[in-house]
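5-aminolevulinate synthase: structure, please.
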Amino acid sequence: MSSNQVDGHPFFRFCRTALENIRAQGRYRQFTPLARQAERYPLYDQPETQATPSTPACPQDREVVVWSSNDYLGMGVDPVVVEAAIQAIHEHGAGAGGTRNIAGTSPVHTALEAEMADLHGKEAGLLFVSGYVSNQATLQTILSSMPGWICFSDRLNHASMIAGIKGARGSTTVIYEHNDLADLEAKLAAAPRDVPKLIAFESVYSMDGDISDIAGTCALARKYGAITYLDEVHAVGLYGDQGGGVSERDGVADQVDIIEGTLAKGFGVHGGYITATSDIVEYLRLSASGFIFTTALPPAVVAAALASVRLVRKDGWRRERMFERVNTFREKLRRAAIPFTMTPSHIVPIPVGDAQRCRELSDRLLNDYGIYATPINYPTVPRGTERLRLTPGPFHTDEMMDEMVTALSHLLRINDLAAQPVAAMA
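Here you go.
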């Protein structure tokens, strides 16, 4: 196809129009070049310009404090975790060499699956290349397994869960209102008794920071003959005596049929997993295309994750320190009269309510104060609920918090922030 033909194709015209609309709505997202300092987390280096094929990166000349990382405990820079990855590279090389069916299974993969199963009190576990894939592949495979499945899905479930549910063949989806057990029960009661049912929900909802009633959901599942699928992605490592998530904290992990999690947030590395009975795990291992047809996680990643999980299970001080920091930061915001959404979790949303204003606020924090806080806009959250999503961690100091509070106090008091371009607000 010639360049003229390409330019004239309707899809290319569609892309240009769509991008123009996204920019006009203030939703255009750009990557911010940041390089984490392993020994000084949450400090990052920000190059003056990004590297290109013709222009090498400039020397790192500016430090930025990051407030939006999902490495909630800083485990990705822990020396023990880093050394585990280095040692695994020396022993096993940089990559896995293929799928686990083709290239074989490293003992470190088996060890991590056993560790995750033990953490959640389940018979078995299965690793996936990411938390997104573990949700998508597992839900799609289960809901395609038998005719007549009905999936009851919380309205605010993550995009990966929605993708898996929508991708299932022949199943029906019923969406219940967010964290509304009365609505869930009404919809369960209206469904036929003799069809397979699954309730899909999360423990910590990462944008609003609220927490589901796991015990109540499981009770309804038993009453109406459903199985439960719980996403603990934003809770594992952070809640419970050993970091098993909200289900461990609440003493109800044994009531949940399938627990899904990630190794990329509280554990600071990469990868996703599910834990369940041996039969469920074996069925997914032999049936889920998202597991079968993709290269396995590199041994270095798995070894680092295994070291991280074992440290987090053993040492509770990281969780205690994180929640102390969260509470300290909220108190500083409160004293400064800065609006924030009080949540029962570790997530601190700062409501803004306008996409353009949210983007400008984030830009000014970075450009004027050396503070990075990601703007959360549509489609991640509904229009009109845009916010900054802050995640204080165990290594955010009082000084860092005071700098953030000072910056927010100044910027949020600029009355015309939403109306003026960033360049005009010196």
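Notes: The domain at 78-314 is CATH 3.40.640.10 (Aspartate Aminotransferase; domain 2).
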